[in-house]
Amino acid sequence: MSKKADQHLNQSRIPGEREAWLENIIAASPNSITVTDLSGKIIECNQATLDIYGYASRKEILGKSAFTFFTVKDKKRARANLEKTFETGFVQNVEYTVKSKDGRVFPIKLSARVIKDESGQPVGFVGITEDITDLKRAEQKLRDSEERFRQIVELTPEGILTLDRRGCITSCNPGFSRLTGYSKEELVGRHFTKLEQLRRQDIPLFRKIFQTSVTGRVPKPFEIITKHKNGNSITGEIHIGKTKKDGKTVGLQIVAIDITERKRAEEETRQSREEFRNLSAHLQSVREQERRRIAREIHDDLGQKLTALKMDVFWMSKRFTEDQRILLEKARSMSRMIDQTIATVKRISTELRPGLLDDLGLAAAIEWQAREFQLRTGVSCEVEIGSENMRFPQDLSVSAFRIFQEALTNVTRHSRATRVAVRLIKKDDFLLLEVSDNGRGITREQIHHPNSLGIIGMRERASSIGGDVEIDRGKTGGTSITMKIPLPRTGQAG
């Protein structure tokens, strides 16, 4: 049979350029091409056959049975497929495991076709073998990757849901079942608008989000309020991504994160902060009222008594004779001391609660405080006041004035500045107070240090009336403090 097949091949070769062209194609093929007789004995092969099976020359292969290369488990199947090829004329892409000369086992994909003579009688087979080791390795990596991904999806605590283009649920992970209380069997196959956990009033919005996500851009993460199967309310954070195949969107992936506890904690924190701010504002109000009361009592009661005492001392000094010079000098000394005490009482009373703040308003109080600061410290203090009507509600004026006082205190204690610039203006329904100096400048650590009580106090005062305070180091040194407080839309204090 081998002699007959070999003779047929010699007779059927195409002479000339076409034969050379065909032989070059076979020689250059990266796949193994072998020709066998009807019993499976190899009578011809190309270079790729030698390379794939690890042989040095064609002599080592020619005459061998093709079944020699198959592993024991695939040899029987290969013989059966050869008989099938004889019956059908060809087989395509059948996978086997084979072994090379050095014993290495690897996978191949084999296609075979019957060779017939001029009379149409089968005389042999031609087989094309592809080494699919790399393909199998890639497929295994893909399976491993898919398994890892599956495990991640199964184990993640977040709920993961996939929808097709119609909006029907195609899969969900255990996390989604835990989140909603519904099993996979209860969810898969249902349209997302039919889910009991969705609020009816939200469905039109979700339908619009779904359509936009499928045909256009997916939205940013958003929050929804839904309910568990047991009836408990749930707040979820929703992330949406597209599922694509061959570059086309075939559905959506939805990740749902249960943020119920986080929202509850945020609300409790917000309420706690609000209560703290209300308490702080109340304490500040009580403190200001107490300062006002003490300042009034010091000014009115103690001031009046000191004035009366001075009048008495003056009356006494007028009744001393020249021979009572020692008593006269003592009376005059007492009068000077009373004057100093009256000045001290006036200063303390003013520092506790400047009368200008209540009588003439914030702008006048700031100008007065700036002059006092300059006289006391020797630091130049320039003040710019807006030309608009600068009368504000009392609580706003008091908070702004106290923030200004604290800013000047920080300049005195820390900055080593020689010049301070103050600016008080109204801008876009806000009151702006800016205090900047040319000192050594504040550091970021000092701004955020928990023991920077002055800074904390300024921020808390501003926050209590809806404003804020920004503190920054100047580009050329020094420190800049900016207070920004929203002005009321209606009604202003006198």
Structure description:
With 494 residues, this protein is α+β, with helices and mostly antiparallel strands. It folds into four domains: 2-137, PAS domain (Beta-Lactamase), CATH 3.30.450.20; 156-258, Beta-Lactamase (2-Layer Sandwich), CATH 3.30.450; 268-350; 356-486, Histidine kinase-like ATPase, C-terminal domain (Heat Shock Protein 90, 2-Layer Sandwich), CATH 3.30.565.10. 49% of the residues lie in helices and 24% in strands. It has helices spanning 2-12, 17-28, 47-53, 72-88, 133-155, 174-180, 184-187, 203-215, 260-317, 325-352, 355-359, 362-377, 394-415, 444-448, 453-464, and strands spanning 32-37, 42-45, 90-99, 105-116, 122-131, 159-164, 169-172, 222-227, 233-245, 248-258, 380-385, 419-427, 430-437, 468-473, 479-486. It has a five-stranded antiparallel β-sheet with strand order 2-1-5-4-3, sandwiched between helices. A five-stranded antiparallel β-sheet has the order 7-6-10-9-8. Strands 11-12-13-15-14 form a five-stranded mixed β-sheet. Helix 9 runs antiparallel to helix 10 (325-352), helix 9 packs across helix 15 (453-464) and helix 12 (362-377) packs parallel to helix 13. 20% of the residues are buried. Mean pLDDT is 84; it is low at 11-15.
